[in-house]
Amino acid sequence: MSERAKIAILGSATIDKIIKDSKISQKIGGTVTYGGITFQKHGLTTVLVTNIAQKDGRILKTLDQLGLEAISFPSEETTSFVNHYKGEMRWQEMHTKAAPITLEQALPVIRKVDHVHLGPLHPEDVVPELFEELAHNSCLVSLDVQGYVREIKQGKVQLKISDILHKVLQAAQVIKADYSELEAILKAYRTDRETLKKVYGLEELVITRADMGGTVVAGETVHYPAELVSQVVDSTGAGDVFFAAYLAKRYHEDESIAESSRHAASIAAAHVAGRYLPVDALDLSPAPWCYVPITPKHPGKNHPMEPVYTSGWKSPNGMIKPRLRS
């Protein structure tokens, strides 16, 4: 791993199939992708820890071309979603699920960075033992809760609070949730925002509400407006871009909550309008294809195989030796 790396993002890199009205596209997605690109654009060298099937090696190639360091252990499948958009409605299906990220994979990485950003996309994306390790680690831990307010039932993504969320919250200092996700958490835990923050020792709770702006609950409560977009090109990944931009300003440049949220809202708006990333930067579209619902394929275990590295990783035998933080 690069000695310059400051941030590690853990979670699935995905194949996202997007069906919007009559248009169909396919691209790389996931918090590791959108968050990684955003941190990099803020001058923060970032390492991705993820699991990608060997047959989908083009994902690693694209991430490498974007300047992102990544380590991927082989998996039977790469996590894949189908995102349906119809007017203001959106729903998701998960067709395949990568093997979970293990403690053995992540430990050598998280001991070398200043900031671990958790971006699981479903409750089984990362093994729970990893959160126990992070709870005793001195690095900053940020979390997007989206993966722990989801249930995958017959491939359909539904709102449900995972039993694992409690353990993840114990490891984090800063979390992001959209308004509906947070409301579901508060209802399940029978608590309020301030109490949730206090019980889990959170420094900040970042709440997003799309074009209605949002709120940051810290020592004070700060409301921020959204930056309006005249034409939406693609909103996929907007929340990941927003949170990474916020964290970059707030925790790596020591800016105020108001300035950090204003900056993040501006970056997210540029992303939604198609001005932040080149339109085809993450494109995976093959020849024209038709969407056909399939039986989800959800393998459970990693293969005992050597990891695959992008060019930023150097290791003579395919393994990274742990090194304690100085």
Describe what you observe in this structure:
The protein has 326 residues and is α/β, with parallel strands linked by helices. It has 9 helices and 16 strands. Strand 2 and strand 3 form a beta hairpin. It is globular. Mean pLDDT is 86; it is low at 287-292, 299-305 and 311-326.
Average of pLDDT: 86
Distance between the ends:
16 Å
Strand content: 15-25%
Helix content: 25-40%
Give a quick account of the main beta sheet: strands, pairing sense, barrel closure. Answer: 10 strands, mixed
Determine the structural class based on helices, strands and strand pairing. alpha/beta
Query: Outline, from the CA principal axes?
Result: globular
Across the major sheet, the strand order is: 15-14-13-12-9-8-1-4-5-16
Give a count of the beta strands, DSSP E runs of length 2 or more: 16
Describe the structure concisely:
This protein is of the alpha/beta class. Helices cover 28% and strands 25% of the residues.
Which short descriptors sum up this protein?
326 residues, alpha/beta, ten-stranded mixed sheet, four-stranded mixed sheet, 9 helices, 28% helix, 25% strand, globular, disordered C terminus
